[in-house]
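Listing S7. Sequence submitted for prediction.
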Amino acid sequence: MILILDTLAKKPVFWLQTKNRVFTSSEIDTGIDDIEGCLKNIWEGAGLKPSELQMVAFNRGPGSFTGIKTGSVIAGSMALFGAKLMSYTTFDWMQVLLGRPVENELLLLNAFQGDYFQARRKNGVWDMKLGPFSDSEGSVCLYFGDKRFLKPQFVDLSPKEPVYLKELLKENLLTNEVKPLYLKKSYAEINREHCGE
């Protein structure tokens, strides 16, 4: 049994493959109000126990600080039941939405305050940075995020149904690297630095 989840959006999405069936967040309300409710709804909706899980994968970022923490906590708690812990990046997820391997495109994700998480695929590895948008190479810019920050030169990658999560497994985009990928500091870190702590 395999669970792949993404907690970076306002409402978490998941794809759960069992021996006999596939469940998605389209079918089972995840109860975003709390982690415990989310997990309880997944297991009750699928009629399964956490101990039956063989692998769990989560989005380690970049993206919402709270979403990354939530995903790592949920996935980490499932690993305590014996599941293998895996992850993927938001840029892997964007590649799946694109429907083909990223070549020369620049991937962009809104990081607010005028910044964008940016990535290019180089030699099979994501070359990532954070900063204001400027593309001197004139690349095709693929964007995912709040439509208010969608610039005319960006191509919007709209999310699809949670079934796309299975493509992460199919395309071999899951990794053993599970350290959360924070390219931007949390407001708490910024405030601590500002206060001199």
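Caption to Listing S7: primary sequence and predicted structure tokens for the chain studied. The CA atoms of residues 15 and 165 lie 6 Å apart. The chain has a mean pLDDT of 82.
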